[in-house]
Write a structure and sequence with these properties.
Helix content: 25-40%
Number of domains: 3
Number of strands: 27
CATH class of the largest domain: Alpha Beta
Distance between the termini: 24 Å
Largest sheet: 11 strands, mixed
Structural class: alpha/beta
Bound molecules: zinc ion
Low-confidence stretches: none
Mean pLDDT: 96
């Protein structure tokens, strides 16, 4: 389990260094009015803490810590290492990153340090040790926040050298490396470690649609590029570890975290979470992001450590960096916050507490707007939530979640599937996972997002859409799970490659073939304007598209077949009995209705039930605390919806009122009730 706070933190990023000191006291009074009990400070202050290589200056941070401590606020203390000071970039140009096109960057922006720069690594350790030595014994410092939104990549010479060392450790011999990357293809065989170059636009990168946008590039050798992603994730994680260990020299108690970003592609968060005391993340849905997607990201963040998490950032109202930064409607921030808690959030924190006067985030929402007053709609909503969290938040802290459904999520698969050239450019990893998650979300079935090495025996149903890369030992683990009675759902583009992106020979889905009882002889790719027809065994028809596996039954039974093209009449969806369990194979991208039909069958067979018996369009999510099961009932729909009957006569913890049968929830309404 992760760390547990005594009090539900309610606050967020606070940058008093950007303001004259007379404002600070006003801020403390406004925080009290809003029920804010914590502040995250020192996120971007390196230039002020260390104005030159030789000088450290903590007098301003001392004053900030002192102000917050005297006001009784809990402090989340950041380490400031996510933006380089100007003197460092000038004196040591190697600290700046080299990008995908091979350009060395100058001073500017943030998230801009080369993780393998010895100079950067030296300075971050020195700075964090000084911070921990100075503030580690302050009881109000309840959490350490290392760096900020780690990500990106570097292609400099230091990284290239470090990549070679990383590879040597992994492969041992040049022969093993040549084989793993299949370098006989195009005669790319290498003879010595120093011939290895980083896979970017100057080497193996393939210009592609969306190229230039992070994570959209293609590559001539996915094996090299996947290893580079693993290496870069490890390199940046090593920066995190350096800072964490520096802190631990002086503060052995306060939990250490860094703010993650949901399904962000660049870092293997399951690996990262093992090094973190508690997971925290930043939740920034767009105006049109489905609420199920937000819920899935919460569940993924909870799944990283199978423990409650911190919501390090969300905006109280508006964002600034999206194309369309719409306001959160009245009640929207409140329900979004309760949804966070419902899915395992043990804190609710904002970016930011006071809106900055300049820079690219001056239009980013804040608790205290440019008007500088508590007389705003946003402030009133923040204060209302503060009162609610203060009243009932602490009874929920640390409570868990019970799920009988697990969905596999794996960064190696994410990278490998999207690096591959063909068969269909529209195939995106997170999209496919989300389609499955949405089904369970609509049905109010609790889901755990789990890593590929999870203990599957906890679950009655495990879904593994696009399990493209099946690493060593995985097929055996899934076979054992199904043989013992588990239900496993997988499908197209699964079991295709090994951990180096080389194809499992002998017919798709490779090591899953025996389990699924099917052989996929060919994979057709359909353009967005094309579709095929799917005919279920009950005669009902639906559409499918994007990818169509052409399947042969090898023991499985057919649940649906294709209706058109030269493979009309061949199986598209199948079910196989394996030991005491069942394996469903979905050979094509089904419509929402089609997928629902298949998953209804799979859930029915596996005895999966929703958190409440009654069907409803409300989101109903449950956490299990010592006091009983806490149910969060939320309306994200555009129409009013009736409260499910099971809650009639129960007390709504938010209003204190006894709920009535048939009462209606308006859009963004929330009810919270404990059922024994
Ligand atoms: Zn570098």
């Amino acid at each position: 389990m992760g760390a547990k706070f005594k009090k539900m933190l309610y606050g967020g990023d606070y940058n008093p260094e950007q303001w004259p000191r007379e404002i600070w006291q006003q801020d403390m009074e406004l925080f009290d009015k809003a029920g804010i009990n914590s502040a995250t400070i020192n996120v971007f202050s390196w230039a002020r803490l260390q104005p030159s290589e030789e000088v450290y200056d903590f007098h301003e941070l001392d004053a900030i810590v002192d102000t917050l401590t005297r006001a009784g606020k809990q402090i989340v203390l950041a380490t400031s290492t996510a933006a380089l000071p100007a003197w460092m970039a000038k004196r040591y140009p190697e600290v700046a990153r080299v990008d995908y096109e091979g350009r060395r960057h100058k001073f500017g922006q943030r998230h801009n340090a080369c993780p393998n720069s010895p100079v950067y690594r030296h300075f971050i350790q020195e700075l964090t040790a000084k911070l921990a030595e100075r503030y580690g014994s302050n009881e109000n410092v309840v959490c350490w926040h290392i760096n900020n939104e780690y990500g990106g990549e570097c292609y400099c010479e230091n990284c290239e050298k470090a990549f070679r060392v990383w590879l040597r450790k992994k492969y041992g011999t040049i022969e093993a490396l040549n084989q793993a990357w299949n370098l006989t293809f195009w005669g790319h065989n290498i003879y010595d470690w120093d011939e290895i170059v980083l896979p970017n636009a100057l080497s193996e990168g393939i210009p592609w649609q969306g190229s230039g946008e992070f994570g959209c590039e293609k590559t001539a050798f996915a094996g090299i590029s996947i290893d580079y992603r693993r290496f870069m994730s490890d390199s940046i994680l090593d920066n995190f570890r350096l800072e964490r260990d520096s802190i631990r020299q002086y503060d052995k108690a306060a939990p250490v975290t860094t703010n993650l970003m949901g399904t962000y592609k660049g870092l293997d968060y399951f690996k990262w979470a093992k090094e973190m005391d508690i997971v925290s993340w930043d939740n920034y849905p767009s105006y049109d992001t489905p609420w199920s997607h937000v819920a899935m990201r919460h569940d993924l963040m909870r799944g990283l450590k199978n423990a409650p998490f911190m919501l390090m950032e969300q905006t109280p109202s508006q964002q600034n960096w999206q194309p369309y930064n719409s306001l959160k409607k009245p009640g929207q921030m409140r329900v979004q916050s309760w949804q966070t808690v419902a899915h395992g959030g043990d804190t609710v924190q904002f970016f930011q507490l006071r809106r900055s006067v300049g820079g690219c985030e001056k239009f980013h929402g804040a608790v205290i707007a440019h008007a500088g007053t508590d007389q705003t709609r946003v402030f009133r909503e923040v204060a209302q939530l503060g009162e609610e969290l203060n009243r009932i938040g602490d009874s929920i802290i640390g409570s868990g979640t019970e799920s009988k459904v697990g969905i596999l999520f794996d960064w190696d698969n994410y990278w490998a599937l999207e690096y591959t050239s063909g068969p269909n450019v529209d195939l995106k990893y997170v999209d496919q996972i989300s389609r499955y998650y949405e089904y369970f979300y609509r049905k109010n079935i609790s889901v755990d997002m789990i890593p590929v090495d999870a203990d599957l025996s906890k679950y009655d149903l495990v879904a593994a859409p696009v399990l493209y890369m099946v690493k060593e030992g995985m097929a055996e683990a899934i076979e054992a799970y199904v043989a013992a009675g588990g239900t496993f759902v997988t499908g197209f583009m699964s079991g295709i490659v090994n951990e180096s992106d080389n194809v499992h020979l002998g017919g798709y889905p490779g090591p899953l073939r025996k389990l699924a009882g099917v052989w996929a002889e060919e994979i057709d790719a359909l353009a967005p304007e094309q579709s095929n027809e799917i005919v279920f065994t009950d005669g009902s028809k639906d559409e499918c598209g994007m990818l169509c596996d052409i399947l042969h039954l090898e023991g499985a039974e057919e649940l649906a077949r294709y209706g058109s093209d030269f493979y009309a009449g061949t199986p598209a969806v199948t079910r196989n009995v394996f030991g005491k369990g069942r394996v469903y194979y979905v050979g094509t991208v089904l419509s929402e209705n089609g997928l629902e039909k298949v998953l209804d069958l799979a859930c029915g067979g596996a005895g999966i039930t929703p958190v409440i018996g009654e069907e409803t369009e409300l989101e109903v999510t449950r956490r299990i605390s010592d006091a009983g099961a806490v149910y969060f009932v939320m309306n994200f729909k555009d129409q009013e919806l009736p409260l499910p009957a099971v809650f009639a006569g129960k007390k709504d913890l938010l209003s204190g009122r006894t709920m009535e049968e048939g009462e209606m929830l308006k859009k963004y309404d929330v009810r919270i009730a404990v059922l024994q």
